[in-house]
Amino acid sequence: MATLATDRLNIRPFEMEDAQALHAFWSNVDVRRYLWDGIILPIDTVRGIIRQSIADFEAHGFGFFSLDLKVTEPKIVGFCGFRRFEDGEQIELLFGILPEYWGEGFVTEAAREVLRYGFEEAGITRIIAAADTPNQRSVRLLMRLGMSFEARREWHGLDTVFYTLTATEFREQ
Question: Which alpha helices (H) appear in 7-105, and where do they start and end?
């Protein structure tokens, strides 16, 4: 499984040893508001997400990465990566970061590197991303990444916008 890096971040695939740290991260009220619709995930669900990510890396070459700041002790401050969307066919980009790091460009930096990896090394040809419409920080990030608006519709009872990016579009940026 690939380990990636940017100037400020180490970006590494999830490991089972990350379960407690990811559980704490995803339990943060500001992180889970738009990511898990306010639900605190049980630790067994977190472990299941990690197991699925590891299996996806082994089978398809993609999954979720933790974001660790290079200037501190290794600490998960965010995550970014891919999973199969609920329809099973499309590949979805997901991301999140602790609120104390909002607005510092860490997710943009990580997402660009993760997208590069997905298109160039994992062979993904098209990626989708969804955001709750009120989550304008994420919507602006998707646009900064060069993603194109595809649709706005109700998804799981929420007003949701969908964006897409192809490998060709990414290369042309």
Answer: 19-27, 29-35, 43-60
Residue type (1 letter), 150: E
- pLDDT per residue, tens digit, the chain (173 aa), is 689 999 999 999 999 999 999 999 999 999 998 888 889 999 999 999 999 999 999 999 999 999 999 887 778 999 999 999 987 789 999 999 999 999 999 999 999 999 999 999 999 999 999 999 999 999 999 999 999 999 999 998 999 999 999 999 999 99
Containing 30, the helix (H) or strand (E) segment is helix 29-35
Tokens of 87: 């329809």
Residue type, 95: F
